[in-house]
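Quarterly update from the structural biology core.
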Amino acid sequence: MSDMNMLPEHSPEHELVRRGLTKPELIRLMVAYHGLVTKVKDKYYKGPRCLAYVRHLIRALRYDNDLCEVRRRLGNARVLQEDLIPLLIYFNDDIPLRNDIIRLLVNFTQPVILLFCKSHGHKDPATAKCMIQVSQYLQQYKKEFTVERVMNVLGSILAELCGKDREDHDDDDDIIIDRILLLFRNILHIPSDPAEEKRTDDDVDAHGQIIWNLHINGIFELLLFVGSNPNKTQWCIHVLEIVFLLLREQTPSNLATADVLVQVAQSFAERQNDEKLVVWGNMLYM
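Predicted structure, tokenized:
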């Protein structure tokens, strides 16, 4: 389906596309004049063509140029903070929209190294400037996931999909599980910016707040379930990446006193021991 078909027939954007307006400029107009969601006082309302615009953003990012022009425009417009996150929180009962929002969040939070892997990096001043700009937007995005309600929604979706019986589980469920795990990986991969946060040494940074949110929303237990389930081995690498990134900024002394991580490790060890006991028990009765 073309971009023209995704826009209202008599809208200003439709006319601008017909005239040959570039896609980044179209994206800026769509965000500025329509928006994906509107806030009136303390209540959010999704736009009448919200899903169509979300899918347009997905396609626009897919065909972005080497300098991530579309990505940088969307970052400057604060689309993730002011549109995607509210849509995820308040309209997650709309399954098609929710799934596409998660897909967009994974795209928005991709590591810089993956976005500019084909470029000359810091050897090119223009590319280096764009990389810095994208990195700054990523650090802004990371702060959005320190909000407990965001992780609560993602954890609830993951728990619902992981808890389905095998006969009720389909390929679309696997895709969403994969994307949620990738989203966790991407968020944790974003380096914190101490200068921007201006926190004291004993205060918790954004990375620590995200780890705490993962814990209180039961996501650690879900990761253990996914990582140790023989029917879900396709996600073991994702879980390993997440665990590595959880511990990346920790020192050995911090880990020794981290009650949450100790509890997770103990839970994992207990699960492994239980599985061994089951195997040994089966062998005794063979």
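The mean pLDDT is 78.
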